[in-house]
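Quick question, first post here. What does this chain look like in 3D?
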Amino acid sequence: MIKRPYYIKRLSASVKRSPVTALLGPRQCGKTTLARIFAEGKNATYFDLESRTDSRRLQNPELVLGSIKGLAVLDEIQSMPELFNVLRVLSDRPGNKTRFLILGSASPGIIKGVSETLAGRVEFIELSGFDLSEMATVDHETLWLRGGYPRSFLSANNEDSMAWREGFIRTFLERDIPQLGITIPSTAMRRFWTMLSHYHGQYWNSSELARSMGLSDKTVRSYLDILTGAFMIRQLQPWHENIGKRQVKAPKIYFRDSGLLHSLLGLPDLTILQGHPKVGASWEGFAIEQVLQSVRPTESYFWATHSGAEIDLFFIQKGKRYGIEAKYSEAPQVTRSMENSLEVLGLKHLWVVYPGDKSYPVNGKISVCPLQNISDINKAI
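> Answer (accepted):
Ran it through. Tokens below.
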């Protein structure tokens, strides 16, 4: 079992200060396992709301939950959204000492329901798949190929991992999408998802995708928002500044899990992946996700101008500006674009993340950093 100390620490702090903690993330990312590990040794009561037995236990939820002392864990909260009002009532009771940990597959409806009903009473924690900081031994190539979903990453071999991911994609399209109240045929969403995999690492162009699928721009945009709200896609927004140059305004699109991207592209092993035209874009997206999981900035962007200057990741931390370039190269070169971004954006430092194993400074403001050492970036900020 891979321990997840960062999330355990976050849960401990949240449960102490907030009546309700919402642990959200895509299905199968490890929410239930994490909650059970967190609840070990505590006075905790667990409810699986997709279980008929547990649902019956909560026929009178205010009475049952109100009698619990300690921690109440409510898994798959999206199955009983009416509990949000009950949790609000219980949280506001004078002298209430019960803490509620609610788990749910991410969806705009759940987040909206929790935010509106439990405003001022809830703290959100977003859980993703495994990342490099959680690996006992650094194995970034396997994590890159298979992605961070526990059952995919921990599979006995690449074939089993690929089979699990294909089953996950099918279940997500045929079960999860309809459960979100979205009446989109699974075949249409599968086709869109597959086409989107070829746009990974590129600027969003709704018109081009809409023409390819014979749909309207608005419909295609709604599909993208659905996948973004379910934590499948990351829309990295552009950073704008008044610099007297035409800047790119469309977001860049990345699959948040590299394993799902490789399944949709039909890439079962590293040899085939390394020979595919999308290998550079795949590495870029994977590196960006790993940096974001390590640094965890409040906001993140990319920056690009129509004249060609660009930086893959830009964020502000503690009032200072930093940049990341992801290069799938054993000997990354400092480009004019990097130097331009240093000057124009006023970066304190720029790191070039690559798949090698040597860290070294290029100059006072640019360093080359192996992906396996990205924790050094967090320490330097």
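The first strand starts at residue 20 and ends at 25.
Residues 61 and 86 are 7 Å apart (CA to CA).
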